């Protein structure tokens, strides 16, 4: 086995931890008849549905309360809640050796293509697999560690966006925590190119809760109790059993997944059987997960930017998602927002708070053109310009700018542009000093 090395450089670490521990409690509810399902039929494999108030999706977990009866869930037990996936944007300033180190990284990338990956031995003793792939256009290099994946751009200093992207492994999050992972990453960045982290930005987070639900979740239960304004839903079935239920599409800022986690854990040769230790169970049977995936846009709406923001607001965010974004409710009122929260779903709502996570209330802020900064507009224009240039087969920046100006001039005249600018300046209060001139 050929193992390559980076220079020996040491580093310090930061600290934060956001994983909830769990205590187990079992609830039982007597069976009772439910009303007729409010929605249409769903096929055996994948279905997309559009509803005003309620949506069906790939089922992963559900919650029950003590007060109401449920014909589909007679018993459940809370197992676990916390952060299962965490993607971070790192604003890294690289050391004076960065130009030289870029050449080394490019050479190793070429070797990785030939060898289907290249093992690198860092001074810390950690080994990473230097992969041939990168991540999009911004991150050329991919270093895969056992605990996380690092994607590194070529910029020596960050601009308006991160120049390093980090994906922390789920097992690391549950057993070691974010604090430990960041300490390792800080040390590794120092070794790779004298890098130091100036800022950490949360790019994506998956919040989840696992429950033992004997008999699992049925589509009839989901469709007759769900309440949501999201119009996109997909249902995956395994014969007559719900396998996964999605609300929101794959690229949505927020997506809900409800699925049989026990089945997933047993797949791929049992690589995830370590969940049994977390669940304190001997079997994966009937373990269901409720999981919300939030991308950067969704996090910005609730003012979550840093890890400290996430730590403070994760409980409140979970409460908002399980109350306002999606819920399971009894059919006891014609107006969905006035329906009683289903007993099982009440358990889902409360699990983060009951397990010691901060529950700071979150308030959604929908950014408008009046609130974003000039830098945001520049970043947006820059991205659109490169996309337009690529579409037209242009690679030279000056040629792209000239073509943009020519097309915009043909698209609208100077007077129309002046009128549009004046209207927007009035809205923002930037037209004058207040005298209307």
Mean pLDDT: 80
**Helix segment tally:** 12
Strand content: 15-25%
- Uncertain residue segments: 1-71
N-to-C terminal Cα separation, in Å?
75 Å
Q: Estimate nothing, just give the exact number of structural domains.
A: 2
Shape by Cα distribution: globular
Percent range of helical residues: 25-40%
Q: Give Rg in angstroms.
A: 25 Å
Can you offer a commentary on this structure?
Helix content is 33%, strand content 23%. The protein is of the alpha+beta class and 437 residues long. The chain folds into two domains: 1-364, no CATH class; 374-428, no CATH class. Strands 1, 2, 3, 4, 5, 6, 7, 8, 9, 11, 12, 13 and 14 form a 13-stranded mixed beta sheet that branches. A two-stranded antiparallel ribbon has the order 10-15. Helix 10 (374-392) crosses helix 11. Mean pLDDT is 80; it is low at 1-71.
Provide the fold topology.
Blueprint: E1 3-5, E2 26-28, E3 75-93, H1 98-115, E4 118-121, E5 127-131, E6 141-144, E7 148-152, E8 164-168, H2 170-175, H3 178-193, E9 196-212, H4 219-225, E10 226-228, E11 233-238, E12 241-247, E13 254-260, H5 261-266, H6 275-279, E14 287-295, H7 296-301, H8 307-325, E15 326-328, H9 343-354, H10 374-392, H11 397-411, H12 414-428
Parallel strand pairs: 1-4
Antiparallel strand pairs: 2-3, 3-8, 3-9, 4-5, 5-6, 6-7, 7-8, 9-14, 10-15, 11-12, 12-13, 13-14
Summarize the structure in short.
The chain is of the alpha+beta class. The chain is built from twelve helices and 15 strands.
Which labels suit this protein?
alpha+beta; 12 helices; 15 strands; 437 residues; two-stranded antiparallel ribbon; disordered N terminus
């Amino acid at each position: 086995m050929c193992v390559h090395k980076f220079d020996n450089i040491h580093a310090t670490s930061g600290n934060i931890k956001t994983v909830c521990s769990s205590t187990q409690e079992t609830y039982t509810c007597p069976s009772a008849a439910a009303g007729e399902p409010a929605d249409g039929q769903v096929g055996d494999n994948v279905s997309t549905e559009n509803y005003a108030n309620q949506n069906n999706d790939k089922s992963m977990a559900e919650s029950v309360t003590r007060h109401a009866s449920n014909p589909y869930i007679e018993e459940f037990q809370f197992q676990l809640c916390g952060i299962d996936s965490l993607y971070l944007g790192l604003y890294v300033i690289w050391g004076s050796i960065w130009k030289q180190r870029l050449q080394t990284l490019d050479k190793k990338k070429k070797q990785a293509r030939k060898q289907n990956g290249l093992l690198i031995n860092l001074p810390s003793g950690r080994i990473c697999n230097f992969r041939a792939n990168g991540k999009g256009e911004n991150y050329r290099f991919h270093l895969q560690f056992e605990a996380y994946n690092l994607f590194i751009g070529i910029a020596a200093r960050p601009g308006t966006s991160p120049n390093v992207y980090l994906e922390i492994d789920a097992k690391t999050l549950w057993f070691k925590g974010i604090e430990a992972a960041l300490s390792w990453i800080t040390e590794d960045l120092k070794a790779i190119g004298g890098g130091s982290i100036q800022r950490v930005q949360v790019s994506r987070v998956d919040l989840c809760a696992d429950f033992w639900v004997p008999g699992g979740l049925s589509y009839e239960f989901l469709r007759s109790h769900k309440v949501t304004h999201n119009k996109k839903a997909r249902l995956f079935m395994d014969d007559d059993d719900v396998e996964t239920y999605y609300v929101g599409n794959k690229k949505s800022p927020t997506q809900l997944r409800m699925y049989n986690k026990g089945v997933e854990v047993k797949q791929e040769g049992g690589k995830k059987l370590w969940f049994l230790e977390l669940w304190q169970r001997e079997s994966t049977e009937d373990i269901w997960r409720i999981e919300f995936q939030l991308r950067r846009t969704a996090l910005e709406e609730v003012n979550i930017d840093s890890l400290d923001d996430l730590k403070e607001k994760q409980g409140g965010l979970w409460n908002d998602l399980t109350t306002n974004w999606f819920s399971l409710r009894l059919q006891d009122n014609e107006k969905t927002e006035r329906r009683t929260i289903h007993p099982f779903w009440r358990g889902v709502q409360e699990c983060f708070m009951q397990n010691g996570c901060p529950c700071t209330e979150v308030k959604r802020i929908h950014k408008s053109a009046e609130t974003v900064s000039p830098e945001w507009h520049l970043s947006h224009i820059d991205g659109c310009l490169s996309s337009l240039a690529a579409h037209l087969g242009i690679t030279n920046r000056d040629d792209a700018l000239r073509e943009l100006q020519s097309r915009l001039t043909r698209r609208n005249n100077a007077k129309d542009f002046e009128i549009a600018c004046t209207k927007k300046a009035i809205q923002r209060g930037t037209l004058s000093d207040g005298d209307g001139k």
